[in-house]
Write a structure and sequence with these properties.
Elements: E1 3-16, E2 24-26, E3 32-39, E4 44-51, E5 54-60, E6 68-69, E7 74-79, E8 84-89, H1 93-144, H2 149-354
Helix pairs in contact: 1-2
Length: about 350
Amino acid sequence: MGEQPIYTTRAHVFQIDPSTKKNWVPASKQAVTVSYFYDSTRNSYRIISVDGTKVIINSTITPNMMFTKTSQKFGQWADSRANTVFGLGFSSEQQLAKFAEKFQEVKEAAKIARDKSQEKVEVLGNHSPQESGRETPSTNQASSINGTDDEKIFHVGPEAVLLKNDNDLLKSTVEQSNTNAKKWETELQTLRENNARLVDALQESSANVESWKKQLSACKEESDTLREKIAELEVQCNEASQEKQRNAQLSVRVQELEAELHDKEQELENLRKQAEIIPQLMSECESITSKLQTAETKNRELEGRIDVLHMDVDDSHQKQGNIKGELKKLMDTLDIKLDELHEFRRGLSRLGIDN
């Protein structure tokens, strides 16, 4: 019936670097199909993965193999026949757990198949000694055939039937062995062809390793360059955000300045309106200035006159004092004269009375 897939998943395939035995080398550029195959004719299990037309995994599972989880999404196993270590990177922990569980099941099935094959070999080995053991009595029988016919019948009959049955069993075993030998030859030829294809694929892979290394180094350099660019862009983004904040602050400041400018323009307009009145005010100011000068001149003249008047007043005061003194003297003299006149009148009246 040939090989049939029993489980299929997708993963990124890696192989250990044969030179360093430490670094992983990607065997596929993207996630590829990885399948478990069962060969009913040989009772064997294989893990096979093909990327396009190239076979990247062809690993026959043996009971001694061990699948190891090295991280949450990565597992590996060693194939001594292929002299390499395969690694699989999955997209989720569930896929890795399912693949590991299937690996354990297939390994147990391979162990059971190996035990059965060993039992068959032991059975065939046990038949061979029985065959050689039974040939000795037949030889002894041949030596005793020289006896009587009764002895021939007594000795030959049951052993001949037993030998016939053994011979039939041996014939069927030989035929089965011949059939198995033909199958094994066909399988051997298939394995040789597969090995030849694997050798070609291995040579092609070895030839592509250097290019992959160069591509990997180029990818690393490109990744470093992109990281630097990302860092620069982050710095530029931070600067841009700071610049946006500054622009927002400047916008607010510009609005404030525009408001102040509008107020200043209003004040300037008022000043312009007032400037239109300035000539009139200047003329009025000149007239007022001339009037003020005239007033100051008059004021100085008045001050001079006041000084003169003050002098006149002082003179008049002095003259008044003199006049007052003279008037006082005159009043005193007048009082004296009036007193004398009263006395004279009283003398006249007395005279009149007397007369």
